[in-house]
Write a structure and sequence with these properties.
This protein has 337 residues and is mainly α. The chain has 13 helices and five strands. The protein folds into two domains: 215 residues, Rossmann fold (3-Layer(aba) Sandwich), CATH 3.40.50; 84 residues, Tyrosyl-Transfer RNA Synthetase (Orthogonal Bundle). Helices cover 52% and strands 7% of the residues. β1, α1 and β2 form a beta-alpha-beta unit. It is globular. The structure holds tryptophanyl-5'AMP. The site of tryptophanyl-5'AMP has 26 residues, from β1, α1 and α7.
Length: 337
């Protein structure tokens, strides 16, 4: 049956703390979208195990990430929030999609090539990572996927999987079963790390955590790279080439951003003064998020209840999709419990 409200799906890996790149590129958008669309957000632990990890640490990371999402403003009474491995249909559909995905397409994925270079031994799971991502999205027949820019190539593959499956198995064939999911990007779709060199990323160690204590945030911000042409305090700078300026645009109101640009161009402020103003702007956003996270940590049953209810709601949709998919492919229905 056709849905009337568009459905949003997105996921995030519990492979380290949620950082401001994740927040500005994706999670901030999730918070806004949940009130306008039917929204499903997933902590993708099956993706996190495609590279070496410590199984003793994973439960705490998964939980801490769920806490960060709720603290950032995802409301479990409005959106569905759950952990991927609690809904086994994700891997079931991924297997099916593996059978219609050419290996060459997976080997061409930029993220695979990057990650594979850093591994001693590359698992089939790492290669098939984007197939599981396609399954995550298509299991819920989602239309819109709010992500950062680095996920756009994976989403192209998800659309390709949807097209290929529809062409082969949809009945009638001119009525696509899976929608082709579109990425939704924010103005801050690619947040650079504090090194000013590469994308902010857990694996590069150039992040600011969403829940980091203020003194740690300042300790990281203080030495962060700025306009390299500003060697002396009296040198005028070019805001557009400075990563700190771009963070101002994300955390401060337009009047402050204008003031920052003028003070930089005229060498009115030094970089440290400029970073102080950024720090204050960040604190206005991050302070309340940290406070909510502390409340949630003190009430573990609330987080458990939200994730359990989320998994049950997700599973109802997932089972319906798998019934349709298996019937169209000539596979056996799930045995009753
Ligand atoms: P992950 O866990 O690496 O990142 C989660 C989200 O944060 C965005 N992001 C950024 N945005 C802007 N600037 C940055 N420096 C930055 N770093 C991260 C990511 O684009 C992402 O939106 N493969 C996905 C997880 C996933 C998924 C899905 C996403 C699994 N299944 C289904 C959408 C739909 C990933 O590794 O995200």
């Amino acid at each position: 049956m056709a849905r009337t409200t568009p459905r949003v799906f997105s996921g995030i890996q519990p492979s380290g703390e949620l950082h401001i790149g994740n927040y500005l590129g994706a999670v901030q958008n999730w918070v806004a979208l949940q009130h306008r669309y039917e929204s499903i957000f997933c902590v993708v632990d099956y993706h996190a195990i495609t590279v070496p990890y410590d199984p003793r640490e994973l439960p705490a990371r998964t939980r801490e990430l769920a806490i960060s999402l709720l603290a950032a403003g995802i409301d479990p009474d409005v959106a569905t929030v759950f952990v991927q491995s609690a809904v086994p249909e994700h891997t079931e559909l991924a297997w099916i999609f593996n059978t219609i995905t050419p290996i060459g397409e997976l080997e061409r994925q930029t993220q695979f090539k990057d990650k594979a270079q850093r591994q001693e031994s590359v698992s089939a799971g790492l290669l098939n990572y984007p197939v599981l991502q396609a399954a995550d999205i298509l299991l819920y027949r989602a239309d819109t996927v709010p992500v950062g820019e680095d996920q756009v190539q994976h989403l192209e593959l998800s659309r390709e999987v949807a097209r290929r499956w529809n062409a082969r198995f949809a009945a009638p064939p001119d009525e696509p079963y899976f929608p082709e999911p579109a990425p939704l990007l924010t103005p801050t779709r690619r947040v650079m790390g504090l090194d000013g060199q590469s994308k902010m990323s857990k694996s590069m160690g150039n992040t600011i955590g969403l829940l980091e204590p203020p003194e740690d945030v300042w300790a990281k911000l203080r030495p962060a790279v700025t306009d390299p042409a500003r060697v002396r305090r009296t040198d005028p700078g070019t805001p557009e080439v400075c990563n700190i300026y771009h963070l101002h645009r994300a955390f401060n109101p337009p009047e402050t951003v204008d003031l920052v640009a003028t003070q930089c161009r005229t060498a009115g402020w030094g970089c440290i003064e400029c970073k102080r103003v950024l720090f204050d702007g960040m604190e206005r956003t991050l302070g309340p998020v940290r406070a909510r996270a502390a409340e949630l940590r003190a009430d573990p049953s609330m987080v458990d209840a939200a994730l359990d209810a989320g998994a049950a709601a997700a599973r109802r949709i997932a089972q319906e999709t798998m019934r349709d998919v298996k019937a169209r492919m000539g596979l056996a229905p799930a045995a009753p419990l």
